[in-house]
Amino acid sequence: MPEATEKIGNVSQSRYEQIVAELRDVVEQQTRGQFTIGDRALEIEPMRPRGGVVVVETQWTVAESIRRLAEDIGLKANTVKTARWVASRWPKGHRQAGVSYTVHRILADIEDEDERFAAIKTPPAGKGRWTPDEANRRVGRQVENPQTPQEKITAIHSLAQDEQVAAAVTTDLLKRPQVAAKVPVEDKVRVVEEFTRDESVATAAATGLLRRPDVAFKAMSDDTARFQVNHAQTERSRQARDYFDRTSPVAPAVRHIDRTVEFLDLVTACHSFVAAVGRTVPGLRDRTLDESERTIVHENVAKVRATLDWIETAVDTGKVDMDSELARLLKDE
């Protein structure tokens, strides 16, 4: 039995080759047509030097002339404008037969004239002819069929220029563990910081993370983080107490109880001191302290005396601020 003929789409290989040959002729005709449009547009409005002033005996601007020509031949003004520019970049002696107008248009971006004329005659290594994607690679543009990782990344960035699309893509990608695992730690930190700029999001994230014992332990190893947590706890308690004092009908009674407790604590502290000293001093009977021991005791007696003065001032006046000397004495306590 004869071997099955390889098919491309719905046609045989031989028929496909016939179609390609036919359409290359069509593309060649289209290329000549596009260059003809450009040449005629150039004839009407030659290219002008960049930044130069050309004195012409006409009231028509370039834009007006191109727009008029486009309307008269049924094309868009931008199409005629582009054809004019491409024709100016490819003088007739440098247009390459068998290369599409699209490739000519893309490679027209090569600024250096000699480099441009040489490039169109030299397809990329391993390629028999120029394709639009290869031409775009040559001039550093985005390709339609990305192949390398960088080209794919560029394509994704291009598609994700809309913020809603970018948000949806980012969310989907970060749900893939294998993707998240390949992201460097420093980049992950930056992503988290960016996502937690909103205070409500940051609060929810921090709360969830600090519920993990290992994370909480490591976080509290940082002095700044530990200080901020302690400060937040103190501030929260203060705010809660302020709110209670402002809104609760029983706040006055509680404040009275607090004052009573503070009075009892102070009396208890004094009693404890007197009792402790009463037990300790008799033990010094018939004992002589050396000079260093006496110095230490005198220093502590000075602190006690200053503290007692502070207590009396607070009780008599209600002022609890300590002077600098007392603060210095009690600094190490």
Secondary structure: elements and pairs:
Blueprint: E1 7-8, E2 11-12, H1 13-44, H2 62-73, H3 77-89, H4 101-107, H5 113-119, H6 132-139, H7 149-159, H8 163-174, H9 177-181, H10 185-195, H11 199-210, H12 213-219, H13 223-247, H14 251-280, H15 291-317, H16 324-330
Antiparallel strand pairs: 1-2
Mean pLDDT: 81
What is the N-to-C order of secondary-structure elements (H for helix, E for strand)?
EEHHHHHHHHHHHHHHHH
- List the total number of helices: 16
Question: What is the percent of helical residues?
Answer: 55-70%
**Broad structural category:** mainly alpha
Main sheet overview = 2 strands, antiparallel
Domain module count: 4
- Report Rg: 44 Å
Number of strands: 2
Intertermini distance: 106 Å
Low-pLDDT stretches are none
Structure characteristics:
4 domains; mainly alpha; two-stranded antiparallel sheet; single chain; 333 residues
Q: What can be said about this structure in brief?
A:
This protein is 68% helix and 1% strand. It is mainly alpha-helical and 333 residues long.
